[in-house]
Amino acid sequence: MEEKTMVNDILEGTKSELTCYQTVINETENMRIKANDYADS
């Protein structure tokens, strides 16, 4: 396997993991916002 292909595979995997992590952070933040809205009611 060529070095360029291996690097691209690693970068793709890293990007995918970061995207997943970002989704989890956004969902957690949304849950906090919703919880605060209920607490304020």
Describe this structure in words.
The chain is mainly alpha-helical. It contains one helix and no strands.
Roughly how many Å apart are the termini? Answer: 59 Å
Beta content comes to: under 5%
Classify the helix fraction into a percent range: over 70%
The global form is rod-shaped
Secondary-structure element series = H
- CA-atom Rg in angstroms: 18 Å
Query: What's the count of strands?
Result: 0
Broad structural category: mainly alpha
- Contiguous low-pLDDT stretches (5 residues minimum) are none
Mean pLDDT: 89
Sheet having the most strands: none
The tally of helices reads 1
Topology diagram in text:
Layout (H helix, E strand, L loop, with lengths): L2 H38 L1
Key terms:
41 residues; mainly alpha
In short:
The protein has 41 residues and is mostly helical.
